[in-house]
Fold this sequence. Notes:
alpha/beta, about 30% strand
Amino acid sequence: MAEGVQQPAFRVEGLTKVYDMGEVQVQALRGVDLELMEGEFVVLLGPSGSGKSTLVNILGGLDSPTAGHVYFRGDDLTLVGDRNLTLYRRNHVGFVFQFYNLIPSLTARENVALVTEISPDPLSPEEALALVGLGERINHFPAQLSGGEQQRVAIARAVAKRPDVLLCDEPTGALDITTGVVVLEALDRVNRELGTLTVVITHNAAIRELADRVIYFADGRISRITRNERRLKPSEVSW
């Protein structure tokens, strides 16, 4: 995280999410309080069902809480309405998921251009792909790319609009360790060079060493938060 950057991008207060599953209610979040700072790299760790993905979906405006508030740079996302929530997602948030969701009939450049054509101040597709180390692969179709390369195209697509926040749900979950390291290097570079607040959900505990802070979840609550004195680079981590 850049020195002197201490302003919270997100402030979460009393965040609760209950899903109605027929006759059963599932409490995914139980009164979470949290601040996420501008420009930091945060890893969320915890077992499946502990609330990590629910939190990230609410931060990204993909889901709404049952109770509580989410403030993004002072604006309460729980009060802005559907249209403004759509604009928030479009202008401020990039998403990276476990599965790449690329359009098979489009080249890497064209997949990234889908985002840059509707963004107010985008990187060019070429710049975004160069940032993730795919400058030589811009004219290849997804079927001509490895899984790791496809995930890096997905990262390029997410960061091409210069989002303030990059939310990643198991971005290396479908990849082997060697390929996963390359993908994590792309995320690390985006965070360091663009100053993008980067939040990564993972089951791989080794990834915590890449973070400024590690937030541990259990049963819909934050169980503890730790801070790394020094962030390791992906190539320095013992996998």
